[in-house]
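User: Here's a protein and a ligand (WQD). What would the complex look like?
Assistant: Let me lay out the input and then the predicted complex.
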Amino acid sequence: MKILVTGGCGYIGSHTCVELLNENYEVVIIDNLSNSKEDVVNRIEQITNKKVKFYEGNVQDETLLKRIFEENKIDGVIHFAGYKAVGESVKKPLMYYENNLESTITLLRIMNDFDCKNIVFSSSATVYGVQESPKYVETMTRKETSSPYGTTKSMIEKIMEDLYYSDPTWTISLLRYFNPVGAHSSGLIGENPNGIPNNLMPYILKVAIGELPELTIFGNDYETPDGTCIRDYIHVVDLAKGHLCAITHALDNKGKLHTYNLGSGHGVSVKEIVDTFERVNNLKLNYKFGARREGDLPEFFADPSLALEELGWKTEQSIEDMCRDAYNFIIKETEK
Ligand code: WQD
């Protein structure tokens, strides 16, 4: 079976390619390298000792997409490609709506033309918005998101739902991620965004290697046990395995629309992450408590029971594993 992975050189995409190859899927990647490097292809091949077919370019490029589908019999698509910086999306909404929506609509149209109607979409817990309960379940109605980035995820879920209802021969799996962190144990692939990171773990890593002077914990006056926000952190390898389970399940159960939470089901606070990171890596992090960050919710985490029930998937790696693997990756990156 051959899977097209859009954005396959990215953080979650590259880890998913590794798990697909380990399960003897053939992998084709399209990536415009706007937020990744072509060397990731070599590292995926190094980890798996398998070959990957790589096409550099934009998913909006119809001519390129048609060439990919003409040159490869694609059995399914996992769609990661898209802009994903929450803060940037607030400053540049048109760029986010145009890129994320246009690329998805073009992809779906070309897939339909080639009678390839099996897609797994990289969605996000952000589509839940503010719910009554912090434990998110798939039957909850999507609410107002906190950024144009989040709204593109909601819109794409809606586009795919409407496509399914117009043609139920499609098989569509919407995967809602919680907070992905960590890296492959080899230390060859991981997350190392350019510039000042928005997300917690990449920021911690830059402080740990001395690239940034100090972490600010945004708020310690929330109604939580230690006053800091609670999130559902998931090891990126567990997340990648969730995609493998989803595409495998989809190939065996055609003509369905599924939505799954991919999270651990456990909430962990920012302070607990910092303390765990220091303990497992035997270091002291420079940090202070600062003001709350606008838009942050005090607490949310997944109800992951549907993915376990239907996909047989659940997280296996601990917060300790996430902190250890993340640091191992950044140390190897900076040693180069
Ligand atoms: C986690 C916690 C911060 C940085 C975001 C996106 C969401 C999804 C996952 C893609 C919060 C605190 C952070 C820092 C801090 N991405 N923090 N100091 O906001 O839960 O979700 O990433 O789908 O769409 O919104 O993740 O890592 O930014 O923050 O104290 O320097 O860490 O306040 O409580 P978040 P995050």
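Summary: Residues 93-113 form the longest helix (21 residues).
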